[in-house]
Specification:
By secondary structure, the chain is mainly α. The protein has helices at residues 9-14, 23-35, 43-55, 59-71, 86-94, 98-110, 114-129, 137-152, 159-171, 175-187, 195-208, 211-223, 227-240, 245-256, 264-273, 295-309, 317-320, 329-339, 346-356, 359-364, 366-382, 390-403, 406-411, 430-474, 480-508, 513-523, 538-542, 544-560, and strands at residues 274-279, 282-287.
């Protein structure tokens, strides 16, 4: 038994009542590393903690360290390989000369003899397992990483062996191996998926890395709610980070953890690094941070800036100035894009963009300005973040269309500009509201009508063609039953399609079918545009959706009990 034996590696480091630099704590950490209790088992880490504990005054650690040192064997005899030919080098390696093994393995790899190279490298590892000081830690890392690389390819393809050699490389202090092990445990490649082990290797890599490594690992720990580990890493990173983007990003993460307050200088730096990334119609954000910041770090920093410092989901632009920075159009437009049109909190920010956009902003950030107008229109139309107002929504849509927003242009298509409201802030008359409501109903009905046309082409023609081919070529004989079955099959298909189409038209179209057909002809520039009520079969067309619905239902009811192939 030893002090803190009831803990493990992670719980000891996270216990605020325990000083991790005390002699007892360091000795306990050494034992945890030797056993693999709460962390990957590592002989190298065990000896390092043992050495630190002995230096801190632990008698027990010093006694154990002396025993470990005494057990190590002296360095093996070396041979001079500088002037050896290939034959002499191979012969020395076959004889087990330690210094010849690795150079012979390198030569074998160049010549494509992978099996011989693996044999020599494994024999070199056997020497190290005896405790003989043959290779430095860097050389040992290289041997293990080379074996791991070989095991990934043909003819081995042994993922478990790859993980094993990465683990050995990490024990000799390889930061790269620790990162690779983190990735493998995170994804379950060559080993059982284990987020706890992945986090442990991430911490090992971070503690051995530079300030940027510590920053990125701290961001990952914050995503996993391991805020104590994140705070410790940030403290270490702040001590070694030079003045620059990495240092500022460290401070930003510390703001999120409550370790420091956001200063105007820090906020200005964060805004200056935000970039908008638009791909395939989707808008995302990035943050330019010199020092190889990961996507996770960028995402965390942006979230802190938008939601913590500016608290954009709970407060409007007026409250944002409390952070010590004057709100600008670009900043507000970032928040508008970040929240998106589906968030009710976006409306005051979008209105701020519309009202405070300068001529320079409208020209330089044309798309952002147009998007803000469109979002204002959506909010007014659906009552998100403000009261529902169709007239005001139409005004915003018109302004957005004129600014270049494509979605707004679809809503406002074929409407003379002179008839549209002058500005989004003006209140349209009741006549304008009625006209715009009628236009919106017609646009919606046209969209449904076009969808129905596509359904006819896609779902009606192919089933009929299939039935005709089936009964023309696959049926060996024709009887009265066959003919009636054929007619019933066609009736069933037509009835099903009619029922579907009639239901869609009946439930979705606000305008009558003659009106929709007339509007479609007008948009196509037809010279035969007639009054809807004066069209042939106008009354029949008017009731066609209802007729189709009942006809389809009747045919289905008749055929469901009798139809079969």
């Amino acid at each position: 038994m030893f002090p803190y034996d009831d803990h493990d590696y992670e719980s000891l480091l996270n216990d605020p009542a325990i000083d991790p630099d005390s002699a007892d704590a360091l000795y306990a950490l050494a034992q945890f590393c030797r056993r693999g209790k709460g962390c990957p088992a590592s002989e190298v880490a065990y000896q390092k903690y043992l050495q630190r504990a002995a230096d801190a005054g632990s008698v027990q650690a010093k006694t154990e360290l002396d025993a470990v040192t005494a057990a190590k064997k002296p360095m093996l005899d070396k041979v001079d390989i500088s002037a050896m030919s290939l034959g002499e080098l191979v012969a020395a390696a076959d004889d087990g000369k330690a210094d010849a093994l690795v150079p012979a393995a390198r030569r074998a790899l160049k010549l494509g003899d992978t099996q011989r190279a693996v044999r020599y490298l494994k024999r070199a590892l056997d020497f190290m397992s005896t405790g003989a000081y043959v290779y430095t830690d860097e050389e040992a890392q290289d041997i293990c990483m080379t074996l791991a690389h070989i095991m990934q390819g043909d003819p081995y393809n042994d993922e478990k062996a790859v993980t094993h050699y990465y683990g050995m490389a990490q024990e000799f202090g390889s930061v790269q191996a620790a990162r690779l092990l983190e990735r493998r445990y995170r994804t379950g490649t060559g080993v059982a998926q284990d987020d706890a082990q992945a986090d442990a290797y991430a911490l090992i890599a971070a503690h051995s890395g530079n300030a940027a490594d510590k920053l990125n690992c701290a961001a990952a720990m914050m995503e996993h709610s391991k805020n104590v580990d994140a705070a410790l890493l940030l403290e270490e990173a702040a001590e070694s980070a030079p003045s620059g983007d990495v240092a500022k990003a460290i401070s930003l993460l510390e703001v999120q953890l409550g370790q420091r307050e956001a200063t105007p200088e820090l906020v200005c730096w964060a805004w200056s690094r935000v970039v908008v990334i638009e791909s395939s119609g989707e808008c995302t954000f990035g943050m330019r941070i010199d020092g190889a910041a990961t996507e996770t770090t960028q995402r965390i920093c942006i979230k802190i800036l938008f939601e913590k410092i500016y608290n954009c989901r709970n407060n409007g632009p007026d409250a944002a100035t409390g952070a010590g920075l004057t709100m600008k159009f670009a900043y507000a437009s970032y928040i508008v894009r970040y929240l998106g049109s589906g968030d009710a909190a976006v409306f005051p920010w979008a209105v701020y963009c519309v009202k405070n956009a300068t001529p320079v902003d409208k020209e330089k950030n044309k798309k952002a300005y147009a998007d803000a107008l469109y979002i204002c229109g959506d909010c007014c139309r659906y009552g998100k973040g403000t009261k529902k107002d169709d007239g005001q929504a139409d005004a915003y849509y018109v302004a957005a269309a004129e600014a270049g927003n494509k979605e707004a242009s679809v809503i406002c298509r074929n409407v003379p500009k002179a008839s549209s409201p002058a500005t989004p802030s003006s209140q349209p008359s009741e006549e304008e509201k009625a006209r715009w409501k009628a236009k919106r109903n017609m646009d919606d009905s046209l969209e449904i009508y076009h969808k129905v046309q596509r359904i006819y082409r896609k779902y009606l023609c192919l089933p009929l063609l299939y039935l005709i081919v089936y009964y023309a070529y696959l049926k060996p004989t024709y009887t009265r039953t066959t003919i009636f079955t054929f007619i019933g099959a066609i009736a069933l298909v037509i009835g099903s399609i009619a029922l579907m189409i009639g239901g869609i038209m009946q439930c979705g179209m606000s305008c009558t079918l003659p009106e929709v057909i007339t509007e479609e002809r007008r948009q196509k520039g037809s010279t035969e545009v007639k009054n809807p009520e004066g069209m042939p079969f106008a009354r029949l067309l008017k009731w066609l959706p209802t007729i189709e619905t009942f006809a389809g239902l009747s045919i289905l009811m008749i055929n469901c009990g009798t139809f079969h192939f």
